[in-house]
Structures are given as structure tokens and as C-alpha cells.
Design a protein that fits this description.
This protein is mostly helical. It is built from 18 helices and 5 strands. It is flat.
């Protein structure tokens, strides 16, 4: 028993050490991926500075900036190749990551082509042109790189939460570098304007300063935590002192200064050095994170070696038994249990895989589970088919096949539900009964197919005019009914008149004859407390025939029925 206990303890220690070593190896690789993408984002950001200057200065001053542009573009291309190589496996598996990298390349090369186009033009043309869209394309490319960076960072922090603080600090420092560069561009863009505060770039500068200040607060909070060492705090203090306290306020003052202001090249020569602490912080964070992972890997390797030497003598004896019990019995039984529980909860999905086993009894058990799952699937399909068929039959029994409206049977069911005997809630109910004028003549003249189209046009034209709660039904032949809850006689007549006008002024029997489609309307209303459905329909029917005697295409309700009775 002591030997078995010792073996288990040693095996657990080896397993834990090996798992930790592998996890740290993966973490180191993921940190390399993160570092390469951050380097790519920063390279793309650094590339903008000389491009912006070259777009603003005279041809004589462009030579130095053009050389720097080529050098920085070469660095960006090398960083891009490194990222593509480092992420080659992930790009194959993760289409979103591949899309982000492709979009970055596309936006970057598009922005470069636009910048080269403007740089070749004369200084006079460039001074008068709005170059913001060209630089905005470079911002879009940087945004794609930052999204790619954040996606990799999220995966890394999930896998290695102990370094989440370092990764977040690295993201913040990278964002600081990016938005500091954008702030510099907005300043350069405003140097040529007499009223900079009225320019769109001024508002973007203010917004970017707000972002930078928010990032500055975050980085100070990280710097005050105990998990970071002294040299990182020194860089954070340098950023606060050189960038936030000096460079950023100075940039704002340059914009608001009275003309003549600094040139773009003069501004960049003083502003760019203030970004150096941001780069140094990012580099220091990456170096510190790599050192911590490497130290953890060394510790894990040492623990693994010691545990292996201690347990090697008894490992071979218990290894086979442990493997046999685990993979030959326990895993299949647990898998069978999960599958049975899933079946009990009507989860009939096929398992992703079935564990390998050599036992005849286990094979019989899994064969039984497979048979039970197939039987449950057949039962589920049959129940679904029956339910679907019952629903279709119900809809067919309640729907007029020609117009898609409720039929008479469905209408009467709805009406009886509205007029419940003994209903304590007193409300009025209105009914509009209308009949297509001269419908028999339409059938005789144009044919029954056109008559059917008239019925369909009528229902389609009037259905959008129904209120919530109204019931529109085909009562029979060319007769239609609108059942309306909570309406008075006057309201019902007003609605009927709106329906009559919508029908008479919009529809024709056919496009050739331009013969309008009209109808005669009868309106009745009553309280649900003392209401009989048949009597209400009879009253509306009587008033509808009054409308026909009055010449058709009109509405007869309580207000004008007495004149016709």
C-alpha cells in the first residue's frame, strides 16, 4: 500500500510538473506571437511619422524623410513576414485571424500607394490638398493590427493568467504609442490653419488626448501595483514626466500659438523623442515577461527531473495497471454514463468520439446505447411530424385558401370568444360587413379567374389597414367581415369609410378596362354585455343591403340607417 501511495504521489508530481512545463512552453510561444504582432503594430505606427512630414515639407526637405520612409517600410515588411511565419498554424485554423492579417496588409499597401502618389506631387498641390484620408487609411491599417494583437492577447491571458498584468500593460503601452502618433498627426494637420479650433482635426485631437489621458491613468495604476519591478516603474514615471507633463501639453500650445507656427519638420523633431519612453516601456515589459516565463520553465523542468528520478523505480510497475484501469474501464464507464444522462434529457446528438476498449461487455453496453439513441431519434422525428401535420391541418381548417384570411368557421370562434356569456368586462364590439359590388357581373364578363383576383386584391389592399386586435375574414362568396373590439358606432363607421375609399381609389378589376373595385358596407356595433353574434351579423347584413339600394359603393351605419328603414 505504501508503494502504491508513493507511486501515485510521484506520478501526480511528474504529471503536474510536465503539464506545467508544456504549458509554459506554449505560453512562451504565444508571448512570441504577441510580441511579433505588437512590433508590427508599432512599426506601422512609426512609419506614419516621416510620411506625414514628407507630405508637408518642401522637396528639398523631403530627401531625408524619403530615406527614413524606405527604412521604416523595410522594418514593417520584415515584421509582417515574422508575424505571418509565427502565426502560420493559427491562420490556417482561425479564419478571423487570417482575415485581420489580410485586411492589415491590404489597408497598409493602399495607404502606401496613396502616400507615394501625393509625395510625388508638387509642394504647392500638397499644401492645398486634404491629406487626411490618406493618413486615415494608415490609421485603419494600424487598427487592424491592434485587433489582431488583442485577439492573440486574449488567448494568451486565458492560457497564462499569471502574466495577464504584463500583457495588459503591454497593450496599454502599445496603444499609448499609437494614439500619441495620431495626436502628432492632428497637430501637424492644424499647423497650416489660422483658426485651428474650427477644424475637424481639432476635435479629433481633443478626443485622442482624452484617450491618452485615460491610458495614462491605467498605466499609472499598473505601475503602483506590487507585481511590477522597479525598472518598469521608472519607465512609467518617464512617460508621465516626458510625455504627459511636457510633450502633450506643448503640442496643444503649438496648435493654439499665434502664427507663424512651427513647421511640420520642426514639430516632429521635438515631439518624436518624447515617444521614446513608450517604446522603452514596451520593450522592457516584453523582456520581463520572457524572463519570468523562462524562470518558471526552469523551475518546472527541475521539479520534473527530481520527481522522475524519485518515482522511476516504481513507475513501470504501476503504469500499465493505471493505464488499463483508466482507459480500459473508467473512461468508457464515465462516457457511457454521460451518454445515458444525455439521452434521459432528450439530447440525441451523436457523441464526438467513443473511447477505445477491448471488453466485450463494454462493447455490448455501447451498442445498446446506440440502439436506444436511434430509437429515440425515430420517436422524436415521428412526434415532430405529427405535431407539424396537426398544426397544418389546424391552419387549413381556419384559413380561406384563396385570400389567406380567416374563414367563416374561424371568425365565429373568435367572435364567440369576444362575446362570452357572463363577461363582466363591458366593452363595445363593432362589425363591418361588405360585399363586392357587381361581383357576378365581373365573373360573367371577365371570368372566374379575374373574380378570384378581385377577391385577392381586396384582401391584400385592406389587410394593412387593420388595427391591432381587428379580425379580417372572408365571410363567404364576395362578402368580407371586419370584427373590431372596443369601438363605438361612430368609430366603426369612420373605419368602414376609410376601407371603402382605400378600395375604390386604388384597385381596378383589370388594368385594361380600369374598372374600379367597389363594395357596399354595412356597420353595426353593440356592447358585449348584451350582444348576440347572429343578431349583430344580421343587422350589419341589413345595413349592407341598404347601401346597395342607395346605389352601392357607400357605407350604412347607425347614423344613416334610420333614413333607409
Amino acid at each position: 500500500m505504501m508503494g502504491a501511495g508513493f507511486l501515485i504521489l510521484g506520478g501526480m508530481l511528474i504529471y503536474h510538473s510536465m503539464t506545467e512545463f508544456r504549458r509554459l512552453s506554449v505560453s512562451e510561444h504565444q508571448l512570441e506571437r504577441f510580441s511579433s504582432v505588437v512590433a508590427l503594430a508599432n512599426a506601422a505606427s512609426a512609419e506614419r511619422g516621416p510620411v506625414i512630414a514628407a507630405l508637408r515639407v518642401s522637396p528639398e526637405e523631403q530627401v531625408e524623410y524619403l530615406q527614413r520612409i524606405q527604412s521604416l517600410r523595410q522594418q514593417t515588411n520584415e515584421s509582417l513576414q515574422a508575424v505571418a511565419s509565427t502565426l502560420s498554424d493559427e491562420i490556417v485554423r482561425d479564419t478571423a485571424m487570417a482575415t485581420l492579417l489580410h485586411r492589415f496588409q491590404l489597408e497598409l499597401f493602399t495607404a502606401r500607394q496613396e502616400a507615394d502618389h501625393w509625395i510625388k506631387l508638387s509642394h504647392h498641390v500638397r499644401q492645398r490638398a486634404d491629406l487626411s484620408p490618406t493618413i486615415d487609411n494608415m490609421f485603419v491599417a494600424a487598427d487592424q493590427a491592434m485587433q489582431l494583437r488583442d485577439r492573440i492577447a486574449a488567448t494568451f491571458m486565458t492560457h497564462e493568467p499569471n502574466l495577464s498584468g504584463d500583457i495588459m500593460l503591454g497593450i496599454i503601452s502599445s496603444n499609448l504609442r499609437e494614439y500619441a502618433g495620431r495626436a502628432g498627426f492632428y497637430v501637424i494637420n492644424l499647423l497650416d490653419h489660422d483658426n485651428p479650433e474650427a477644424q475637424p482635426a481639432w476635435h479629433k485631437l481633443i478626443e485622442t488626448k482624452g484617450r491618452l489621458e485615460g491610458l495614462g491613468h491605467l498605466i499609472n495604476n499598473y505601475g503602483q501595483s506590487d507585481q511590477h519591478n522597479a525598472h518598469i516603474n521608472v519607465h512609467i514615471q518617464d512617460i508621465q514626466s516626458q510625455f504627459f507633463n511636457e510633450a502633450l501639453p506643448w503640442a496643444s500650445r503649438v496648435v493654439l500659438a499665434a502664427p507663424p507656427r512651427l513647421s511640420a519638420s520642426a514639430f516632429l523633431s521635438q515631439y518624436v523623442p518624447s515617444l521614446k519612453p513608450l517604446e522603452e516601456l514596451r520593450t522592457t515589459i516584453e523582456q520581463d515577461a520572457f524572463k519570468r516565463i523562462q524562470l518558471l520553465r526552469v523551475n518546472a523542468a527541475q521539479t520534473l527531473l527530481i520527481a522522475s528520478l524519485i518515482t522511476l523505480g516504481v513507475l513501470l510497475i504501476f503504469f500499465y495497471i493505471n493505464w488499463l484501469l483508466r482507459f480500459g474501464l473508467f473512461v468508457p464507464l464515465l462516457t457511457a454514463k454521460r451518454q445515458i444522462v444525455a439521452l434521459a434529457h432528450d439530447d440525441l446528438a451523436e457523441p464526438s468520439r467513443t473511447p477505445k476498449h477491448s471488453s466485450y461487455e463494454l462493447q455490448q453496453m455501447f451498442d445498446g446505447i446506440i440502439a436506444l439513441r436511434a430509437s429515440q431519434k425515430r420517436k422524436q422525428i415521428l412526434e415532430y411530424s405529427q405535431k407539424k401535420m396537426a398544426e397544418q391541418l389546424r391552419r387549413l381548417s381556419e384559413t380561406d385558401p384563396l385570400t389567406g384570411l380567416y374563414n367563416r368557421r374561424a371568425l365565429e370562434l373568435v367572435a364567440q370568444a369576444m362575446i362570452l356569456p357572463g363577461d363582466q368586462q363591458k366593452q363595445s364590439i363593432g362589425l363591418i360587413l361588405f360585399d363586392i359590388d357587381h361581383f357576378k357581373e365581373i365573373n360573367d364578363t371577365y371570368g372566374h379567374a379575374v373574380g378570384d383576383q378581385v377577391l385577392q386584391k381586396t384582401s391584400a389592399q385592406l389587410m394593412p389597414l387593420m388595427r391591432p386586435g381587428d379580425v379580417f375574414a372572408r365571410f363567404g362568396g364576395e362578402e368580407f367581415i371586419v370584427l373590431m373590439p372596443d369601438v363605438s358606432d361612430h368609430q366603426a363607421e369612420h373605419i368602414a369609410e376609410a376601407l371603402r375609399q382605400a378600395l375604390a381609389t386604388a384597385l381596378y378589376v383589370d388594368e385594361t378596362s380600369k374598372r374600379p373595385i367597389t363594395a357596399s358596407f354595412g356597420v353595426a356595433a353593440a356592447s358585449t354585455e348584451h350582444c348576440d353574434w347572429e343578431s349583430l351579423v344580421a343587422l350589419a347584413d341589413q345595413r349592407m343591403y341598404f347601401s346597395k339600394r342607395r346605389g352601392r359603393n357607400c357605407v350604412t351605419g347607425a347614423s344613416n340607417a334610420r333614413n333607409n328603414e
